[in-house]
Fold this sequence. Notes:
By secondary structure, the chain is α/β, with parallel strands linked by helices. The protein has helices at residues 19-30, 64-77, 102-123, 151-170, 190-193, 200-210, 218-231, 233-236, 252-261, and strands at residues 10-14, 34-39, 54-58, 83-86, 133-138, 174-180, 240-242. The radius of gyration is 18 Å and the shape is globular. It has one domain: NAD(P)-binding Rossmann-like Domain (Rossmann fold, 3-Layer(aba) Sandwich), CATH 3.40.50.720. The longest helix has 22 residues, at 102-123. β1, α1 (19-30) and β2 form a beta-alpha-beta unit. It is 41% helix and 13% strand. It has a seven-stranded parallel sheet with strand order 3-2-1-4-5-6-7, with helices on both faces.
Amino acid sequence: MVSRRTKNKNIFILGIGSDIGAALARFYINQGHQVFGTYRTDKSIKSISDHNNIRLFKCDLADKPGIKKCAVKYKALGKPWDIFVSCAGTMEPIGKFFNVDFDEWENSIIVNSTSQLRFLHELYPCRRKKSLNHVVFFAGGGTNNPFTNYSAYCVSKIMLIKMCELLDDENKDLNTFIVGPGWVRTKIHAQTLQSRSAGSNYGRTKQFLKSDIPGTDYQDIFDCINWCIDQGRQVAGGRNFSVVHDQWREKGKFLARQLRVDPNKFKLRRFKNN
């Protein structure tokens, strides 16, 4: 799916070294867009570093001064962003809340949520003015039901879901939404397989990775994001979408009509739930 609203755009991808981040970068580059992105390790960007339409910044999202320096470097380029996509994340620490090191737990919250918001806060002045800009975050497992032994990961994702609604409420120039990709074959699952405290998710993850189940395709993730961008703020703004379960494909027009008339749909709240 080629978005009607993403022609010759500047795309900023936070965590471009992640599997999803790198895949999105390739999709955008192949469509002729200019891509900017942050990465943590040199190894993570080997598949994308040779492209012409890409500019990369090394940055550890746990490092506040490092985020500031990276943002300053981007600002100096004079390239206002049209789409900001945050793909950074970690599942660690894995284990029961009272059994994990609290500093590690807090650091996970920082990497999975507050540092992403810090980066967006730094880059907001660098957006393309007088146009609707798009901000995309990624949700994950456990936002609807308990995800046992992954409390830091879950809490940080729920924070992003609510922040999307708050940012949408406060900023009429942003179409801010969050996408849940479902099970994707990425290297983040290695954190579960290496943990002795993953509980039942260890078996589920191992079974998924050993099976012939392909998981969510990167193209579907890209297409869902483009659908949300094409629909604009009235439909997508402040909402949490599932790539796998929501009917944005064949019944996209029907879903869009539903969302236009129901401000509570796909948002984090109890509404008429007695």
